[in-house]
Amino acid sequence: MSEIEPVGLGFIARLHDQTYAAALGPGPGDVVLFSEEPREGFDQVGGYWRRRVRRDELQWLVLLRTVGAFGGEPCVVLDEDEDGLHIAYTGHSGPKAEALGYWMVDHGAYEVVVPHEEVHSIRVERIPVPSQPAQGASVSNM
Fold first, then answer.
1. Which of 28, 64, 66, 118 lies at a C-alpha separation of 20 to 30 Å from 131?
2. What ranges in 27-141 are assigned the alpha helix state H?
């Protein structure tokens, strides 16, 4: 297995030379930043702090995702535990996903938990998110 630790999925953003975990929304041009420590402009919610900003206020916004290959087919790592890696199929063939042991969790979406050593070519992708949402775009959950 690769030396890269799987990180799952998530957004990160940079504001005023500080990097934060982030989430899109509630509006198409909005981002919510999260901190584990009190920060100026952040409101405490439970055990963390959050701040809503406009996307165009950010230095950058990226989607981090850990990807690899299982059975020669592309996948994204969703989670990791003592049972192995929880992965989702990112190829385009339902029959191929089912042949590899994935189970259908929704129409066209397949997932499986496999031993760590069966996932190869693990790497972290950083996918830039534009500072302005596309016209007519709505927020979608990943």
1. 66
2. 94-99
